[in-house]
């Protein structure tokens, strides 16, 4: 009896172990599929077709502790890559994917491995052109008209008092007399003091005295108004928050975290397929602003040799955290996270970060 019980026990143990091995084989593939999408400088392609970039190098450092066999599966767009991760078409993605509330509902994320910002790119503005443009602005014209009107009013008042008793300086007909009064008012206000005209009547001198003191205040305020109208306001000065973007023609990459941000604040934006497309649209004046991940914007502008025409604003819209993305409830998150944390503390990673900044 004991013999049969022993055989039964061995049989059950064998079946259990076989099932465990089978389950292990199912849950642990021989080769992991890693989804990527070309996103310089994080995912780039060498001339020989192999992949490179900061994210690729980060995974190589992480995999030194895991020793996984893997293969990359490239997707043409970010939207397709995110769908592939969500559907379990790939085991995970090492792309610089920003963690957002909406994406956390679709997939799981690892410990962030890179901190970035959502930036804004625009065409460089010509200071000379903007000054010339402002010369024809209503603000500048209205300031000039106000200045001329003030000069004319005091010139007219002096002419009223001086036109009869000081006809040689302020007479000679209504039109000429008014012009002489205007000339005196302008000379007095600017403190040039040619001395060719001066009021002689009591009323004229009272007006002149009032004008001398008032001119100091008026010319100061009008000069400040004219200077303000000529001040070149760049786009950067006009953007104090995300809602200010509605005044411009804005573009961003479809399915990106920047697109989610603009939609959240109801900012109308043109959805583009790539950063390069947005840069070309800005160069051709078909777009005012391109909103996307700051390091990717700067790298793309440099690679396209567009730095002479396009710049990235110092002001950013929000902070971003890049993480590896996994299908929902993936066991790989708990396995890869410790290795990723160790990588972030390594000297090799610190040197890589400096290289790509």
Automatic annotation (TrEMBL):
It is a multi-pass membrane protein. Keywords: Glycoprotein, Ion channel, Ion transport, Membrane, Receptor, Signal, Transmembrane, Transmembrane helix, Transport. The keyword Transport applies. The chain crosses the membrane at residues 135-161, 206-227. Residues 31-357 form the Solute-binding protein family 3/N-terminal domain. Its main location: membrane. It comes from the Bacteria. The keyword Repeat does not apply. Residues 1-20 form the signal peptide. It is found in: Membrane. This is Transporter substrate-binding domain-containing protein. The lineage of its organism: Bacteria, Pseudomonadati, Bacteroidota, Flavobacteriia, Flavobacteriales.
């Amino acid at each position: 009896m004991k013999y049969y019980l022993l055989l039964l026990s061995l049989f059950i143990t064998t079946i259990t172990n076989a099932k465990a091995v089978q389950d292990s084989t199912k849950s642990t593939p021989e080769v992991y599929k890693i989804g990527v999408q070309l996103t310089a400088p994080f995912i780039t392609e060498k001339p020989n077709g192999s992949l490179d970039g900061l994210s690729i190098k980060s995974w190589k450092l992480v995999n030194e502790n895991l020793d996984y066999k893997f293969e990359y599966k490239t997707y043409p767009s970010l939207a397709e890559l995110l769908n592939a991760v969500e559907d379990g078409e790939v085991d995970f993605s090492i792309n610089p994917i920003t963690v957002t509330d909406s994406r956390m509902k679709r997939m799981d994320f690892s410990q962030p491995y890179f901190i970035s910002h959502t930036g804004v790119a625009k065409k460089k503005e010509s200071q000379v052109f903007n000054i010339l443009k402002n010369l024809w602005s209503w603000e500048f014209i209205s300031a000039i008209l106000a200045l001329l009107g003030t000069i004319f009013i005091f010139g007219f008042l002096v002419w009223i008092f001086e036109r009869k008793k000081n006809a040689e300086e302020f007479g000679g007909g209504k039109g000429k007399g008014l012009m002489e009064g205007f000339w005196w008012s302008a000379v007095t206000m600017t403190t040039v003091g040619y001395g060719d005209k001066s009021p002689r009547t009591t009323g004229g001198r009272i007006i002149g005295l009032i004008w001398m003191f008032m001119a100091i205040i008026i010319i100061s305020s009008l000069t400040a108004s004219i200077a303000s109208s000529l001040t070149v306001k760049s786009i950067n000065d006009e953007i104090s928050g995300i809602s200010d973007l509605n005044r411009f023609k804005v573009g961003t990459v479809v399915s990106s975290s920047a697109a989610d941000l603009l939609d959240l604040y109801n900012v109308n934006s043109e959805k583009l397929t790539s950063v390069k497309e947005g840069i070309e649209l800005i160069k051709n004046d078909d777009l005012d602003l391109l909103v996307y991940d700051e390091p990717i914007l700067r790298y793309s502008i440099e690679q396209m040799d567009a730095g002479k025409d396009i710049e990235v604003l110092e002001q950013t819209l929000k902070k971003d955290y890049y993480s590896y993305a996994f299908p929902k409830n993936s066991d790989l998150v708990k396995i890869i996270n410790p290795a990723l944390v160790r990588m972030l503390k390594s000297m090799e990673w610190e040197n890589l970060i400096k290289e790509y900044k």
